[in-house]
UniProtKB/TrEMBL annotation:
<feature type="transmembrane region" description="Helical">
    <location>
        <begin position="260"/>
        <end position="278"/>
    </location>
</feature>
<dbReference type="InterPro" id="IPR043428">
    <property type="entry name" value="LivM-like"/>
</dbReference>
<protein>
    <submittedName>
        <fullName>Branched-chain amino acid ABC transporter permease</fullName>
    </submittedName>
</protein>
<feature type="transmembrane region" description="Helical">
    <location>
        <begin position="312"/>
        <end position="335"/>
    </location>
</feature>
<feature type="transmembrane region" description="Helical">
    <location>
        <begin position="51"/>
        <end position="69"/>
    </location>
</feature>
<keyword id="KW-1003">Cell membrane</keyword>
<dbReference type="InterPro" id="IPR001851">
    <property type="entry name" value="ABC_transp_permease"/>
</dbReference>
<dbReference type="Pfam" id="PF02653">
    <property type="entry name" value="BPD_transp_2"/>
</dbReference>
<feature type="transmembrane region" description="Helical">
    <location>
        <begin position="232"/>
        <end position="254"/>
    </location>
</feature>
<feature type="transmembrane region" description="Helical">
    <location>
        <begin position="76"/>
        <end position="94"/>
    </location>
</feature>
<feature type="transmembrane region" description="Helical">
    <location>
        <begin position="106"/>
        <end position="127"/>
    </location>
</feature>
<feature type="transmembrane region" description="Helical">
    <location>
        <begin position="26"/>
        <end position="45"/>
    </location>
</feature>
<keyword id="KW-0812">Transmembrane</keyword>
<keyword id="KW-0472">Membrane</keyword>
<keyword id="KW-1133">Transmembrane helix</keyword>
<feature type="transmembrane region" description="Helical">
    <location>
        <begin position="134"/>
        <end position="151"/>
    </location>
</feature>
<feature type="transmembrane region" description="Helical">
    <location>
        <begin position="182"/>
        <end position="201"/>
    </location>
</feature>
Length: 356
């Protein structure tokens, strides 16, 4: 009898594992295979400057998507948090500015940089959760602007307008992680990990509670949940993702300066998140890829036509307005509507029409 129960339990476990495996959409497996095999056909420029940069910006925008999509809190300080992590790596680690950089080993520098970024995000969250709507946007934008001007004018710690250069990733396992191939896989790994973690957290009790607070904070408070504590924790979690993206961004360009966290990049993260879609974690990465492709090639096209490259922002603005006008949910919203019009689920591709 016991043997029969054991066999039944094993069969049940195998069925659950198979169902989990089969629930992953086929499109995800295809995308994963394409990304893994991309270096076989793509040049170093495409790997590093297109996809690597897209993964990094997508991670930072993902932190904004987590706050806005699941928590209903639009924060404009995520790029600032990313810049803080980058600055801390330059200050505590190794850079070309020997008079300021302390030269500590990476296994101290990186965790310390992330801790400071998370602490900053938590403090910002503690201030921002006391406001709602446009006031949250304004207070986070004010903090981002204050940080930009502070770093630009501070030369003792942040080296003022010039910032830091020569900030390189550590040489681990004998690999030059700033090389095109190595950095592509490094950024891809952290982007996929961030995506999976956000997806998991969104379905965990904390994420479900956060979504409940987003929809009806008074009811959730009446049920005994600490609304502000959950919101602040969401800011801390989002800060961790943005901090990792900030370190990767610093390593990619080998420098960090006040311009990294200027008003333009701060707004760009919001544009990226909205263009891709704020309802699903994959949206920010789609928006980041569109943004990077436009920024990389639109400037060259405009220059060849005798127009100023600065008009690239005009193209991004027009694209942003068109997408928001036709689909408030971004590119994903358009895709979902098109798939639903054909009677198929937008993620799995399965037919949603009722059987006759």
């Amino acid at each position: 009898m016991n043997g029969t129960l054991t066999d039944a339990a094993r069969s049940n476990d195998q069925a659950l594992s198979a169902s989990w495996y089969e629930r992953i959409p086929t499109a995800y497996w295809i995308i994963g295979a394409v990304l893994l095999l991309m270096p076989l056909v793509a040049s170093g420029f495409v790997l590093n400057q297109i996809f690597g940069w897209s993964f990094i910006l997508g991670m930072i925008a993902l932190s904004l998507m987590f706050l806005a999509g699941y928590g209903g809190m639009v924060s404009l300080v995520q790029m600032t948090i990313a810049a803080i992590a980058g600055y801390m790596v330059a200050i505590f680690g190794v850079s070309s500015i020997d008079t300021i950089s302390l030269g500590w080993p990476w296994w101290i520098t990186i965790p310390l940089a992330l801790m400071i970024a998370v602490l900053f995000g938590t403090v910002v969250g503690a201030l921002a959760v006391r406001t709602e709507g446009i006031y949250t946007i304004m207070i986070t934008l004010a903090i981002a602007s204050a940080f930009f001007y502070f770093t630009r004018q501070n030369y003792g710690v942040f080296n003022g307008f010039s910032g830091f250069n020569g900030v390189l990733p550590p040489q681990l396992f004998g690999v030059d992680w700033r090389g095109d191939l190595a950095f592509y896989y490094l950024s891809l790994f952290w982007a996929v990990l961030a995506y999976i973690v956000v997806l998991y957290v969104s379905r965990a009790p904390f994420g479900l509670t956060l979504q409940g607070i987003r929809d009806n904070p008074r009811r959730m408070a009446a049920l005994g949940f600490n609304v502000n504590a959950h919101r602040i924790a969401a800011y801390a979690f989002a800060a961790l993702i943005a901090g990792i993206g900030g370190i990767l961004l610093t390593w990619q360009s080998a420098q960090i300066s006040p311009g990294t966290a200027g008003t333009g990049p701060v707004i760009d993260i919001l544009v990226i998140a909205v263009i891709g879609g704020l309802n699903r974690p994959i949206g920010p990465f789609i928006g980041a890829l569109i943004y990077v492709v436009l920024k990389t090639f639109a400037i060259d096209i405009l220059t060849s036509l005798g127009m100023s490259g600065d008009r690239f922002q005009l193209l991004v603005g027009i694209s942003f307005l068109l997408i928001v006008f036709f689909s408030p949910d971004g590119i994903l919203g358009l895709w979902e509507r098109w798939r639903e019009s054909r009677g198929r689920d937008p993620l799995t591709g399965e037919n949603q029409k009722e059987a006759p």
